[in-house]
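Example 3.2
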Amino acid sequence: MQDDRAPEFEVGVDMKTVRLQIHDSFFPRAKALRAAYDERFRDPLIPRADRFIWDYWHIPGEYTLLRTQAHAFFQAKLYESFHRHLVEWGRANLGCHDVSPPWLSCYVEGCRQEEHSDVPHGPLAFVFSLTGRRRFQGGETFLKGEKNIPPKFNRLLVFNPAIPHGVTTVRGTHDPRFGRLVIHGWFVNPRPFWYGPLKAAEVSHAIEGGLLELGHLRLGQGFASFRLHIDRQGKVAQVKPLITTLEGCKDLPALMKTLRGLRFPKKKASTQLTLPLMVD
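Structure, written as tokens:
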């Protein structure tokens, strides 16, 4: 997919297996989302109909939490501004063109997620925190082999959903105003995304022709995304890894060399291409 606008987001990581990314101060209007939530639950003595939205999702030994569809909770324009920001960020930095319908979840006393994996849902999972000043213990996202990540306000966490993960038990509050509050889901639909004058057919032809060599490489399994800077001569001047969850990859240098060898038509301006790769 082509987009002629200048990129608004920059993310880079070392070329190695990346299990998670943490991005603080993610959404400029996060305070407005939080204010809308607080207003709805401001006075628990007033039986507002729009408070009757929670699905108490309890599966013994797996999940205990309050949840609802995020788009159904917030005012339409406010929610759409967040959804659009999240999708555009995913396209530019991951090569994922959409997200699954996000959930809004609240964790109060006793709520948790036991260790699990989300392989079928999408190549990358996300958790965006609207948690205010913490009045509880627990509530951290944990990934097997990693440190626990607390739900800091306006923090986006992106991780490989194939890694066993969960949420530690919340203790200390029964009040939905003071619990762990997050919007979460999965990045989906990986395909190339670019800023610049190249046409879809030109990008497709160059990628399909140039990546035929990948068949003999030992890339393991998983997902990887790269940003390619394509100069006006159609040459790849730079390859920057954005995120990779590849496990068992033995030929990363050869993969990088192959990407540097891609050739595109000459243009009057350069192009920045986000190229996702799914390997199984």
